[in-house]
Amino acid sequence: MLISLRLKNFVIVDELELDFTSGLTVLTGETGAGKSIVLDALGLLLGDRADAGMLRHGTDRAELAAGFDLDGTPAAGEWLAENDMTGDEADRLLLRRTLDSAGKTKAFINGAPATLAQLKTLGEMLVDIHGQHAHQLLLRPDTQREVLDGYAAAGQLAGDVAAAFRHWHQLAEQLDDSRRNAAAFDAERERLQWQIDEVAALSLAESEWEELQAEHKRLHHAASLIEGVQMAIGVLADGDENCQGWLSQAQHRVGELAGYDVALDESLELLAGVDAQLTEAVNALRRYADHLELDPARLQDVETRMDAVWRIARKYRVEPEQLVAELTAWQFRLAELGGSEGLRKLEQAVVAAEASYRKQAGALSKARRRAAPELAAAVTREMKPLALADSKLEIVLEACEPSAHGLEGVDFRVAHGEAPARALGKIVSGGELSRISLALQVIVSSRAGVATLVFDEVDVGIGGRVAEIVGRLLAQLGDARQVLCITHLPQVAAQGRQHLQVSKAKTGSGIISAVRSLSIEERIDEIARMLGGVDITETTRKHAAELLGYV
User: Fold this and answer.
1) CA–CA separation, 441 vs 47, rounded Å?
2) Are 38 and 515 in contact (CB under 8 A)?
3) How far apart are CA 55 and CA 11, in angstroms?
4) Is 107 helix (H, G, I), strand (E, B) or coil?
5) Could you give the CA distance from residue 529 to residue 541 in angstroms, rounded to a whole number?
6) Which residue from 90, 107, 202, 413 has the least number of CB within 10 angstroms?
7) Greatest Cα pair distance in the chain
């Protein structure tokens, strides 16, 4: 459950710290006081998108944080452990988010950086928020289907059915495309096979072209290489007058002179080094010369091979060194196209995908058929004390063509008295729809796995005795879950175990919103304000105290 909320520089909040209790917590305040700010902040901490307009005017950074007790929410604890985000205390969770003036945000789960997707995934395990326009959304078929699937605990199965349907239709589209283009694909396969056979016949290795170029250059200049190397060897060692002879004479003479002056020792050592390097160079040239020979036949073979490669490369308009990569690409495309065997495999894949979809959709249909009458009966029971005693909810499942939503449509209908049931939008008034929606939310929420439920003015359009019953319903729900409710009805507010008042005031830095927990006397005054408006009399205060059970 939610145990704390801390806000700084958020919308019109300067700084705010709230602690929450279990059971029903009500938030009240005059219109425009900023009651929704608390829920907006909670939404951001649970993964909603933010924008710079949420920053309090004149500031450059907003900070939001919420603490949760995970006792009773094992799924959240398991998720934290799987993602290596467990905090210092395994049963505690801290969500934090910052927002700057550029609209950029950072999120943290137990101090670890987190993505919005992670916040949203974790948030769905912690809090279930029912907005003030939920009763209007109930008119949409998508909402009705999602409500039933949620009650049936079939949300994951519904997602699997949608994924299976998309997979089936993607394969079916590929199959249709393959059949429509069969002639073109056959021509492309024939062309590719011919190209592959021609290039493969070359048996060209990965780096062979570069090696052919290097060998051709050497063989083509073999005569020049032989002549030049022999000339170098002659000058350095084999000629009548050569470098090695001259160097030997110089070494001998400097050696004699070094006997007269040790300062020549350094020069003598350097000459010895030159002699060693010269000898090594001569030996290397001799070894190179031993392997040099004129080989016109090999040169002809190399040129013939290069000509064959050039001819194929020019034909397919690629560089010779790219032929091997081009061959690989052709082979990949040919495998991708397949043949008649490939078409048969695709047909088999489509049949298998359809069978998988229908199996999962059938399981979803079974879950819906089992849950629909149960949900309808439960909601009908909740509707009776809400001034809808002669009405009942029916959930009709009508078979339809296979779709991402399954094999049937879901239609919520209401019957008044003995009249036949009709669609919600055609038979109920706005107030009736609001009460039916509330009954649905109470029933569905009672099955939710989350520990905290939030209701944002879901009691709109309700008053009098019905409002008192709604308050009792929410308080009853609070016995099993933590419930936060923004309300404008004193009958609902009086049922709260904790009462938070939202107010705003003008300060030197602008309009500031504040939230505080009310004492017994303050609760009486607030309920009296909600009952009597501007002028609060003793009679009004007495009525407020009676609602609160203080007299």
Assistant:
1) 22
2) yes
3) 5
4) strand
5) 8
6) 90
7) 138
Amino acid at 227: E
Name the residue with tokens 């790219």: 322
pTM attached to this predicted model: 0.61
Residue 236 region by backbone torsions, left for phi larger than 0, else alpha for psi between -120 and 50, else beta: alpha
Q: What is the crossing angle of helices 182-200 and 155-180, to 10°?
A: 70
312-315: long-range contacts at Cβ-Cβ below 8 A with a sequence spacing of 24 or more?
312/198, 312/199, 312/202
| CA neighbor of 146 nearest in space, from 155, 159, 157 | 155
Bridging pattern class, strands 61-69 and 2-10: antiparallel
Amino acid identity at 132? Q
**Cα atoms in the Cβ-side hemisphere of radius 13 Å centred on 260:** 4
Instruction: List the structure tokens of 363.
Output: 């399981």
Residues 6+ away with beta carbon under 8 Å from 52: 99, 100, 101, 102, 103
In the numeric block, which tokens belong to residue 475?
């308080």
Q: How many Å apart are CA 116 and CA 124, to the nearest integer?
A: 12
If one counts every other C-beta atom within 10 angstroms of the C-beta of residue 110, the result is 18
Q: Which amino acid is at 43?
A: G
Which amino acid is present at 485?
C
DSSP string for residues in 121-183? HHHHHHEEEE-TTHHHHTTSHHHHHHHHHHHTT-HHHHHHHHHHHHHHHHHHHHHHHHHHTHH
| 3-state DSSP of 339-365 | CHHHHHHHHHHHHHHHHHHHHHHHHHH
Spatial neighbors of 469 by CB under 8 A, at least 6 apart, are 385, 386
| Nearest alpha-carbon partner for 170 in 333, 400, 357 | 357
Tokens of 335: 């495998």
Q: For residues 40 and 11, is the Cβ–Cβ distance under 8 A?
A: yes
| Predicted confidence pLDDT, tens digits, the chain (551 residues) | 999 999 999 888 888 888 999 999 999 988 766 678 888 899 899 988 888 888 888 888 999 999 999 987 888 888 999 999 998 888 899 999 999 888 889 999 999 999 999 999 998 888 887 766 555 677 888 888 988 998 998 989 999 999 999 999 999 998 888 777 667 777 888 888 899 999 888 888 888 888 888 878 877 777 777 778 888 888 888 777 788 888 888 888 888 888 888 888 888 889 888 888 988 988 888 888 777 777 788 788 888 898 989 999 999 899 998 898 899 899 888 887 765 566 788 889 999 999 999 999 999 999 999 999 999 999 998 888 887 888 899 999 999 999 999 999 999 998 888 888 888 777 666 667 777 877 887 787 777 667 888 888 766 667 778 888 888 888 888 888 899 988 888 999 999 999 999 888 776 666 777 888 999 999 999 999 888 766 778 888 899 898 888 76
Burial 193-228 (b: 16+ CB within 10 A, else e): eebbeebeebebeeebbeebeebbeebeebeebeee
- Token digits for 430? 């706005």
What one-letter code names the amino acid at 464?
Answer: G
State the amino acid at position 302 in one-letter form. Answer: V
